[in-house]
Amino acid sequence: MDHTPPSHAKRRASAPTLADVASHANVSTATVSRCLNEPERVVAETRTRVMAAVVELGYAPNFNARALAARRTNTIGVIIPTMENAIFARGIQAFQEELGSHGFTLLIASSSYSEELEAEQIQTLVARGADALLLIGHHRDTKIVDLLRRRELPTLVAWAFNPAAPLPSIGFDNCEAMAGLGQLVIQYGHRNLGFISAHTAANDRARDRVRGVKLAMSEAGMDPNGLRVIETDYGIECGATAFKQLMASTPRPTAVLCGNDVLAVGAQRAAKEMGLAVPADVSITGFDDIELALLADPPLTTVHVPHREMGRRAARMLIEMLEGQSVLQSVKLETDIRVRQSLGAAPGIG
Amino acid sequence: MDHTPPSHAKRRASAPTLADVASHANVSTATVSRCLNEPERVVAETRTRVMAAVVELGYAPNFNARALAARRTNTIGVIIPTMENAIFARGIQAFQEELGSHGFTLLIASSSYSEELEAEQIQTLVARGADALLLIGHHRDTKIVDLLRRRELPTLVAWAFNPAAPLPSIGFDNCEAMAGLGQLVIQYGHRNLGFISAHTAANDRARDRVRGVKLAMSEAGMDPNGLRVIETDYGIECGATAFKQLMASTPRPTAVLCGNDVLAVGAQRAAKEMGLAVPADVSITGFDDIELALLADPPLTTVHVPHREMGRRAARMLIEMLEGQSVLQSVKLETDIRVRQSLGAAPGIG
DNA sequence: TTGTATGCGTTATCAA
DNA sequence: TTGATAACGCATACAA
To answer: Which of A5, A60, A83 sits opposite B127 (nearest CB)?
Structure first.
């Protein structure tokens, strides 16, 4: 990659400025600025005159200049691991809607599930003057958290609840949620379990989900070390490949739990390719309850996450914080299990 | 919605500035600036001293100030109709990757398929100083195009090719592509066709696709007015509802073409609910060839669009334009038809 | 090679 | 209620 910044762009036609509007309306720039920001502080007559000039010239305030002078951008940044799928889309959409209805703009960046890239993106958003940040998950370098602290930048973590983490969060307990699903699978009679996980090294949510299944196994008197775990990249194909690996092990799992719905759909496809019936031969479960879970064949048993509520409330918390009405405090949301046909009794169980 | 901007945010801890670095390294701010932007123009000794100060202070340039002074942001904006699904995700991802490797940043906004919101978002991106814009489709108010012209803002349209449109574009001919699929469906013996379309009023791509099917019908000697068209919102459920409406008409269509894959998957679901076999009782086709098309049951016959190539080349065109090496010229990409099981012979045909 | 000085377009302080 | 004017943080002619 060639990160050299481009040399010299053609200078573009300059837009009308505050000064243009001011001279056009025979007032000072200060008055024009007030008309736009605190209209009640300017008398009606001049205000209409100014606004007429604004319309006539097609004036729009220069965002960068405004940000520089006001030291505020009314912009909130979010960094999501990926845009290529629907896991975060619904929640972020709700986040954006709520922000928009309060006059805030959303800046979206993507980290491609990379810790380094996330750090870079955080720097970028900070440099752009974001008033607050929304991040996904708790795993990140201490230096970044310190930077956020020093800058006193309101930062909220979503898609994970962990009051012990250094940053306040809104979300669900990934371990608890997955443990619930694990219990259910065990109730269905499964004793040989496989797990297809996202990479856990830089992903606390993935770690917690693995931990959840093991917890459920322990509580059921099983040996948690008996869980066969495969870590893989994100994607349907990856889920398929991992599934085949799992099914090659002995004893063969009768149920394969997946860290997310996309991996689970991949597992389902692989099962079909291998001639295995779901759930008669093998049960498969997901996590997230994205639209895909319902489309899957058979429909996926999965953990339902309140995406939209999470996004909406995250926005409200950040806004209240920015308006000085509150302090960020972690909020725990509840998940529930959607039982669908991809989960069945273990083979040999009536 | 309450669009009142928030009153007063707490002033945040101020970040180190160029001046801080300068005094720390005993040089002028100009030298620091040069170290960052044209390192070759400063002698090695001072450069190392400056860079050390940069690191020590954790200095990061203020983006807004830089944009204001340089009158350039190295930022390109894109406005997509929606983030809630995968239609644009792959192409935009490629667009972003290509931009990133050339030192440009992508600003993403979403219009929710609304013409007014798109206009607003364009204004926002312009106000933020985007160096160039990528838009989806040709349909938009003349005033907006004029604004772009006056500002001399390089603007490229994607997901549609139309050399006659006011803005240069990269993409495919939606009419031609859909006509090709229509021909194929007719070759399969279908004479009663239904079409589920996105709303066409503010969407030239949707219009062109409807036109394409009618064109294929005309060429086959059929009456294009015989095409039953239902326009609907975006979403799987909408596709399902529209399908049921179509199947209630007489004579019942033996093939239902859909304006995109998501609608087609909805149609498939509705068919299943109605107890209709695909393709034995009714054929269903999509458009876009997103991942969903392969997951569908049965897999969807659809028009394959070179999303990633489109994104990558769009980025290159814009970058070359910005670097003064070229002028934006429309590029036509080819689509091809992926024939899968959702398309079969018309009932009663051997 | 480096420094000085000015301007970018806006907000905000302080007087008038 | 309005108007000068000084920041805001950086880039860039121009000078040294």
So the answer is: A60
Q: Provide the pLDDT for residue B326.
A: 82
- Please say whether the structural domain B6-61 has been given the CATH code 1.10.260.40: yes
Q: What's the pLDDT tens digit per position in B127-168?
A: 999 999 999 999 999 999 999 999 999 999 999 999 999 999
Residues A116-138 pLDDT 10s: 999 999 999 999 999 999 999 99
The set of residues with CB closer than 7 Å to nucleic strand D is A 26-31, 34, 41-43, 45-47, 65, 68-69, 71; B 14-15, 17-19, 29-30, 33-34, 36-37, 59, 61-62, 65-66, 68-70, 72
Q: pLDDT per residue over A269-302, tens digit each?
A: 999 999 999 999 999 999 999 989 998 989 999 9
Nearest to A167 by CA among A135, A193, A199: A135
> Which top CATH class is A174-304?
alpha beta
- Residues B78, B134 contacting (CB under 8 angstroms): yes
pLDDT in tens, A185-204: 999 999 999 999 999 999 99
Do the Cβ atoms of B84 and A96 come within 8 Å? no
Nearest to A107 by CA among A119, A95, A125: A125
Least CB-CB distance to A68: which of B3, B65, B89?
B65
| Rounded distance between C-alpha atoms, residue B42 and residue B204, angstroms | 53
Q: Fold identical between B74-172+307-335 and B174-304? A: yes
B-chain residues within 8 Å CB-CB of A8? Answer: 323-324
Length reported for chain A: 350
B3 touches chain A (CB under 8 A): yes
Contact A288, A87 (CB under 8 A): yes
Instruction: Indicate the domain borders of chain B.
Output: 6-61, 74-172+307-335, 174-304
Look up the pTM and report it: 0.90
